[in-house]
Structures are given as C-alpha cells and as structure tokens.
Write a sequence for this structure.
C-alpha cells in the first residue's frame, strides 16, 4: 500500500476513535450544563466532531468527513453505543460528516482562513447533528429547540477554535504530495542552468535561451 494512503487511513482511524470515545469522556461534565438548561445535549457532540474536522484539515478530500461518520456509526452499532436514536443512529453520524465535507470544501475553494473554516464547520456540523437528533427523537419546538441549537452552535465555535490550534500542532502529518510540491519548488529555485551554471528560477531554459539569443544578434 502507498505510504500516503496508509498515513491517511491511520489518521482517519485515529480521529474516528477519538471523536467517538471523547464524547463519552466529557459527557458527565457536559450533562451538568445541559440538564440545567433542560435540553438533550449538544456540547459533547461538538467536541467529538472537532476530531473529524481536524482529520479533514489534514486530509483535504471531499468524502473524508462522510466516510469517518459512516465508520463511527458502524463502530457505535457494533459496540451498542447507539444512544437515543437506536438503529437510526448512523444518520446522526453521517449527516454532520457530510456537512463538514461541504463546509471545508467551500472554504478551500474560497481560500478562507483555517481558523474561520474550522469554527464554521464545527458550528454547522454540530447544529446539523442537533437538528437531526431532534427530527428523529426529541421533537422539540419553540424556545427549547432554539436553545438546543444555540448551545450546539456556541460549543461548536469553541471547539472549532480548539481544533484549529490542534491542527497547527499536527501539520507534519499532512499528505506527502504537498511536501513533495514544496520540495520540487525549492529544487527548482536552486536549479543550476546547463548553459551558464548559474541558478535559474524557471529551470534555466527560458532565461539562458533569451540571453544566448541576445548575445548572438
């Protein structure tokens, strides 16, 4: 297997596991706040989605988030971690993953700053997860639904900032093809021309051909 593909799979698997089990770790602390507000949740979901966004930031492929959401749903079903949605829990994992893919893809196309892209992706994916859970299970309405989504958006923004900081510490595991491009550009700048022996930015052919033509006219 190609080393780049293997590295992608390892990072995706690690982020899937961290996203799935980190939600269980912070659930007791998050439930203190959500129980006080009388809403189902939203904080733990935003924190778990942060790891999926980090993986999409490291591996900029469109279906990365959706695939990780599907893998998480399969793990959750196999371990009985289905929560209140039961057999429909895969929808609650796949929909936020797809939202992450769409937001990060648009951010790359529009050249949005990484921190802003992470915050927006975490906010919208957390809100999508809350709305999906509400549509399938909770059926909240009015002020309670607005509060539920608002908590998801707020926690998503905070976790988005944390995710961008985490990505900054993991830059070294980005796909190798980008590092190859940077290495190629560096070698191109240091390329010694065959004609004059001097470094030429464009590989030597253009400048020296032009110079040779001028000296012989």
């Amino acid at each position: 297997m190609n080393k780049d593909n293997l590295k992608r799979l390892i990072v995706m698997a690690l982020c899937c596991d961290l996203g799935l089990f980190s939600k269980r770790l912070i659930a007791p602390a998050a439930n203190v706040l959500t129980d006080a507000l009388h809403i189902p949740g939203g904080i733990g979901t935003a924190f778990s989605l942060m790891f999926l966004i980090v993986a999409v930031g490291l591996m900029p492929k469109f279906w990365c988030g959706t695939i990780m959401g599907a893998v998480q749903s399969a793990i959750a079903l196999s371990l009985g971690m289905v929560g209140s949605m039961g057999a429909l829990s895969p929808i609650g994992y796949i929909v936020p993953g797809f939202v992450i893919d769409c937001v990060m893809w648009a951010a790359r196309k529009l050249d949005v700053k990484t921190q802003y892209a992470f915050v927006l992706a975490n906010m919208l994916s957390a809100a999508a997860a809350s709305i999906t859970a509400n549509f399938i299970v909770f059926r909240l309405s009015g002020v309670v639904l607005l509060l539920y989504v608002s908590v998801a958006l707020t926690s998503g923004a905070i976790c988005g900032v944390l995710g961008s900081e985490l990505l900054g510490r993991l830059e070294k595991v980005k796909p190798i093809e980008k590092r190859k491009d940077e290495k190629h550009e560096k070698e191109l700048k240091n390329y010694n021309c065959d004609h004059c022996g001097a470094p030429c930015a464009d590989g030597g052919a253009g400048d020296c051909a032009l110079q040779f033509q001028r000296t012989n006219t």
Notes: The two ends are 56 Å apart (CA to CA). Confidence is low (pLDDT under 50) at residues 175-180, 201-207, 209-217. Residues 3-37 form the longest helix (35 residues). DSSP finds eight helices and no strands in the chain.
